Amino acid sequence: MADTTVRIDGNALRLPGGVTVRFIRTLRLPETGTHPLPPGLGEFPVRRVADYGDRVPEAWRARGGVMLPVYLREAMWLSFAGTSEPAALQVGVGKVCAVSGRPWSDRPARGPQNYVVLPRQPWLDGINSGTGTVRQFVAVPLGLGATVEGQVTGEEVWGGVQLQSFPLNDRELARWREEERRRAERTRGMVPAGGYGAAVPGGFAAAMPMAAPPATGAPPAPSAPGSVPAPPAYGAAPAPAAGAAPSAPPRAPAAMGLGVGGSMRQEVFQDDRPLTDWAERPAGRVFVHLVTPPEWRRITGEAPPPSPVDRAAYTRAGLPWFDYYDQDAEDLAPTDTLQAVKPAGDWLGDDHEPWQEPDPGQVRQLKDAPGRQVEDGDW
């Protein structure tokens, strides 16, 4: 039987089939206008729910998975750097597909496409809400209706983030590996070794903005090696955590989910493979619970990350923003469902954080330069 274990490597989630996912802290964008890609400001720490079974709600233990701390209205994006083999990755926000806006499904689908194609999709900053744009993932509490889940389904039951990966089927995976072997033989000695996401001169990993330091005096979160057991079916009876230290009875933390913020220039790429190339069953899945910083400290005993970086100060300092364009890929059209999702400010009030537009020289181009638009006329 294939291994379906999801593992934690530092703060990265490694799903079976070679998929790597990291949750990246970033600057929250204004909710008006369309903006370049904000920088990465370090990884969110990730911990196993099973390691704190006596301090989390029963529902969390039933769902299993991992948790990470996030501030109210804090933004995040998902990095897929390091993914080693092709995969169709489903990303759910409150069990609503972030790509199609459809309910969570146990199979990849088309019409509309309900997954991102790895490794071609290097990251995902938000829901697929526009032509060549996404709306930024922003943390909001459940109960207001501000989450994507609440706006699409009319209920807020799940919250969090859900990930599920599908590898190529056995025939296509063998074919892909053989093609990669032949390509490696042709290019041996010319390209540094490494899977997708490895740093190569001028490549994605080399240009990724991950260098912004945490606030002075903030203790680094320790890494948490180990595996994330495959979660039981949602609603199944939870198993107690082995060796858990006695603690106060678990209480219900403030439930968090993902709403949306500002719009940015980012494509969600259309799959150019036949749907039958992908396995029919997922290789692995994981439920990611979102925790407020006070609850994170109570549950784990660790200090949460420092509060988000001031975006105006970042821009005034001349630090970079980014544009990414892949001339060989086709953008996936948004669905009406996700186009209709409203930003968090409609529920939480206006955003009073100051905003300073980056100078053109601060916006760095990643991968291909987009071609200039050719204007048409009367003819």
Automatic annotation (TrEMBL):
Residues 235-259, 333-379 are annotated as: Disordered. It comes from the Bacteria. Residues 365-379 have a biased composition (Basic and acidic residues). Residues 235-246 have a biased composition (Low complexity). This is Integral membrane protein. It comes from Streptomyces violarus. The lineage of its organism: Bacteria, Bacillati, Actinomycetota, Actinomycetes, Kitasatosporales.
